[in-house]
Amino acid sequence: MKITVAGVGYVGLSLAVLLAQNHEVTAITTTEAKAEKLNQFISPIQDDEIERFFREARAGKRKLNLHTTTDKAAAYGGETELVIIATPTICA
Fold first, then answer.
1. Burial letters 16-53, b for 16+ CB under 10 A, else e
2. Cβ–Cβ < 8 Å for 41, 63
């Protein structure tokens, strides 16, 4: 299944990493630098499990089918079957 995750904060990135073990996942962010780091499997947030999964992916011990982009057409176009929106919530 082709999945797009909009937002790569804690919730979005956690979902993207878990889903990327068995599905083709494109994550979309508004920050080019964050996209570049994620494409190198470097986490922008501190989370033991995400960091472990990324470390294993860099070492070739875990397959993660995850690509991050800032390009809306690439993220939402094509054959995307599911879009998950994980944007920040503001509590006042």
1. bbebbeeebbbbbbeeeebbebbeebebeeeeeebeeb
2. no
Tokens 């994620």 belong to: 38
**Global confidence as pTM:** 0.91
Compute how many other C-beta atoms are within 10 angstroms of the C-beta atom of residue 73.
Answer: 8
pLDDT tens figures, 53-66? 999 999 999 999 99
* Domains of the chain by start residue, with CATH: 2-85 (3.40.50.720)
